[in-house]
Amino acid sequence: MQNYLDPMMKRPEGEQMKQLKAMYSDIQVIKGYNTKLFRDLEPRILEWTPRQSFGDIFLQVVKFSLSLSLSLSLSLSLS
Description:
Oligomer: single chain
Radius of gyration: 17 Å
Distance between the termini: 25 Å
Shape: elongated
Number of strands: 0
Helix content: over 70%
Number of helices: 4
Order of helices and strands: HHHH
């Protein structure tokens, strides 16, 4: 992200900057949640048993996705 997003956000001005901010404003949040998802899944996968499950982890993802979707919708409607 440092090699791609940071330099891209420094260059544009005006309307192009507004568009970039709208598209990438939540990227850090999404990246953080993807990292958490990976960390939650990894130990279960490494110690997998026939009775193992990970539905609870995906329920957390759904809750997050719904709140992120609502946040993005509100953010786009206000811009």
